[in-house]
Amino acid sequence: MNIYDVAKLSNVSIATVSRVINNKPGVSTAARDRVLKAIEETGFRPNQIAKSLTNNKTNILGIVMPGMNNYYSDRIDAINKVCKQRGYGLMITANYKDSNSTEEDIANFNLLHEKRVDGIIYFPTNVMQEHIDAIKRIRKKMPVVITDKEIRDLRLPCVIQDFVSPTQEIVDYFIQKKHKRIAFIKGSSYDRSNATRHEAYKTALTEAGLTYDEALVAEGAYSVDSGYAAMMEIILRCEVMPTAVFAANDHMAIGAMKALKEKGVRIPMEIEVIGYDDIEFAKYVTPSLSTVRVDQYVMGKLAATMLIDLIEGDLKDHHEMTMGYELIHRESTRKVTS
Fold first, then answer.
1. Is 286 exposed, middle or buried (0-12, 13-18, 19+ CB in 10 A)?
2. Residue 218, helix vs strand vs coil
3. DSSP letter string over 101-148?
4. Which of 35, 98, 278, 337 has its CA 20 to 30 A from that of 291?
5. Nearest residue to 100 (alpha-carbon basis) of 75, 132, 76, 65
6. Looking at the predicted structure, is the pLDDT value of residue 337 above 80?
């Protein structure tokens, strides 16, 4: 069955059927009832592309993300669930693994724009002026919601993480445990959130009366191998070993623990280790990893709900939510709760 059959069966024009399908005015109650009855009897389903041309809406959301990895899986699962509940489809674009190419991000924004999605959720990492220019251009056509971190040069609706408070709490915890040499394995320099975390680390040390020591800081790339290399770098250049380590994500923390074990350093008796993200394997490594948990599923749910509310006119253009967090102690710190 097609639209012509529905029009013939209900004794109206094709234009009238189109107005009924798209809930437009200008159709009598009797004619609307006949069309709806014909649609029900024939099982006719309007072509979504044809509908989108009529009402300028595709009911599809887009995601621009830096790459496909497990870190984002819960967030995307939540976005997908909200989309299905609210009658939207989902189109995901991502860079190649371990790539943070600005050109790829811009190409992904342009692709979603060309596909006429109704709105975009962006997972930013290394935000350059080109990103800002592209988003300014695209947001004139559709809403854009940011997750993880705020982009200072844009007032965009966002669901962000607080990178400062968890860092300060971790350093304060180590200081309360009488640690004076606290190492920090930071993330890649391209990720501006790490500058925020690094400053929070330095501030917490200073406020506790401890001297910041560059030898205790090394940069990783969010992988287990890079965490291993960063920990080895710290061990080799320090005359006095650190007694505590905070890594900017769990993968690097697990790599750091491998390096420490190889050097015969006992965890947590001689050194305590805390990661960030609470990935699935954090509880299964030996010793199990203490870490910071930010609920990625909730973040995705909030972001998708926010974007759809913007599309449907139920929310103002600028709205900001900051995620909470939980410091979870396992066997890699001496304070074991579960």
1. exposed
2. strand
3. -HHHHHHHHHHHHHTT-SEEEE--SS--HHHHHHHHHHTTTS-EEEEE
4. 98
5. 65
6. no
- Distance (Å, rounded) from C-alpha 244 to C-alpha 91? 43
CATH architecture of 164-293: 3-Layer(aba) Sandwich (3.40)
- Rounded-to-integer distance, Cα 179 and Cα 186, Å: 19
- Sequence spans of domains, the chain: 3-55, 60-161+296-324, 164-293
Q: Which of 35-49, 206-220, 289-303 has the lowest mean pLDDT?
A: 35-49
**Could you tell me which CATH number the domain at 3-55 has?**
1.10.260.40
* Phi and psi torsions of 150, nearest 5°: -80, 145
Q: 10 Å Cβ neighbour count for 244? A: 24
Q: Which three-class secondary structure state does DSSP give residue 274?
A: strand
Q: pLDDT tens for residues 36-84?
A: 888 888 877 766 545 554 556 788 999 999 877 778 899 999 999 999 9
Would you say the C-alpha torsion 64, 188, 306, 71 has a positive or negative sign? Answer: positive
Helical spans, DSSP H, in the chain: 3-10, 14-21, 29-42, 48-55, 73-86, 102-114, 129-138, 164-176, 193-207, 224-237, 250-262, 296-311
* Intrachain domains 3-55 and 60-161+296-324 with the same fold: no
3-state secondary structure of 292: strand
Residues 288 and 254: their CA atoms lie apart, in Å, by 9
Superfamily of domain 60-161+296-324: Response regulator (3.40.50.2300)
Q: What are 109-149's pLDDT values in tens digits?
A: 999 999 889 999 999 877 888 888 999 999 888 999 999 88
Under DSSP, the state recorded for 290 is: B
Name the helix (H) or strand (E) containing 291.
strand 291-293
Q: Report in angstroms the alpha-carbon separations of 45 from 5, 25, 54, 98, 167.
A: 12, 20, 15, 42, 53
What is the spatial distance between Cα 320 and Cα 200, in angstroms, rounded to a whole number? Answer: 22
Output the CA angle 219-222-226, nearest 5 degrees: 60
* Six-digit token string for 194: 């790490």
